[in-house]
């Protein structure tokens, strides 16, 4: 901190002047009485004051003129630049909802999907919905289906990418109380057991059946009995659905070895717990995946 010669005027910014000493207040323009009155009224919090002949000394005190005041808890910063005093509180800058939405989208995963609920804290519900409509109109966001949005990405071949189906389905089911799980070819593909990319995704659920479109991809939600929803929403449930799709002939030693190396300890334990409730033809394969000894 540069020293100021006597007679020069500097600026001190006080973060919390409550603990300022009286002899420091005596150096403020207006005198100690005016300073104390303003201090009691709370007008000088986070304000700028002009003081005379200020310098920092080695013991951490602030020396002003002939007096010395403790700088502890006041965080006084002295500058040679002269500024005016203003008692009006600083006005908060309001950031448009559109810009706040784009900032939050930019900080998310590339494949993420969004609904209006993801931006509930940025403004009133109607303001958020209008902001999403404006962003779609400007091309900064795209609509995967009604109420579901994603960030389009440039692609050298197709122009712009569509929504990530996996992320979009998870977002659709995020606020649902129903159990659900990817099924069929989608389950096998997600586990690396099949290279076939499903043209239509099938999701088994304890909720109501329905068919929706996410971008250009069709998604069918099928109602399933509890015995066909073992491990719903967990990796063990995904393995169960994939094995159901492959059937007894499709569960080869190579695929068993693949699952054994892919699943972590937690998933294997969940799979072992579910094994007694699985069909008989599936249990030997599951036992090999998790390393259990086959029951005689």
Quick structural gist:
By secondary structure, the chain is α+β, with helices and mostly antiparallel strands. Helices cover about 35% and strands about 20% of the residues.
Task: Name its key features.
33% helix, disordered N terminus, 21% strand, 3-stranded antiparallel beta sheet, 296 residues, 10 helices, alpha+beta
Beta strand %: 15-25%
Number of domains: 3
Shape: elongated
Order of helices and strands: EHHEEEEEHEHEEEEHEHEEEHHHH
The span between the termini is 83 Å
Radius of gyration: 33 Å
**Which sequence of strands runs across the widest sheet?**
12-13-15-14
Parts with pLDDT < 50 across at least 5 consecutive residues: 1-33, 35-85
**SS field, number of helical segments:** 10
Number of strands: 15
Structural class, by secondary structure, is: alpha+beta
Mean model confidence by pLDDT? 76
